[in-house]
Write a structure and sequence with these properties.
Length: 188
Amino acid sequence: MKATISLSTLMQRAAETPRYMTSNNKLNPAAVISDLLFDAGGDFLKAEEEKKVKAQFAGNANYRDLILIICYLLHDSWFLEKKNLAPAMAVLLFDEKFKQLAGIVKARQFITDGERREELVRLVLSCLSLVPEGESEIKAKDRLTTLDSVERVRLIEKTRKAQERAKQLREEMARREAEEAASKMSRE
C-alpha cells in the first residue's frame, strides 16, 4: 500500500456529495462511471459494460446511490492526477463488497454519518491499495475492520445463532432432567 491523501480531506469530500448524486433516477450511473474512468486516464465503458452496469443497478437504488457517491469521491483531483488508478477504480466500482454494504446501510448515511463516511473512505482506499496519509498499513486495516458494517452484521448474526443454540441446549437439558426426575419418581 502507498501513502495517500488525508483521511479528513476525503471524508469532507464525501460529506459534500451533491444531493443530485443520490436518489436521482434520471442520473445515468453508466455515464457517471464512464466519465470517471475516462477522466482518470482509462477508457469509456464499452456498450456491453454499460449494459452490465444497468443490469447491476436494476431494482437496487441504494446500491446505485452508493456507487455514485464513490464516483463523486474518486472524482477528486488527487485521484484523477494518478493516471495509473483507472484500472483499479474500474475493479472497485464492481466489487461485491459495495453491493453487500448497500444491502446493510442506506447510501445517504455515507454522506451524513461520520463513522459510515470514514468506513466508506477507508474501504475505497483499501480497494485501491492505498492508506490514509500518516497511517501504517496495519493501522489502516485495523481501523477499517473496526468500522466494517458487513463484518459487524456477520458477527451479530453469528452471536444470535450461538445464543439460539445455547437456548436449545438449555431447554434440552431441562427436558432430560424433568424426564429423569419423572422416571425416578415412578420407580419409587
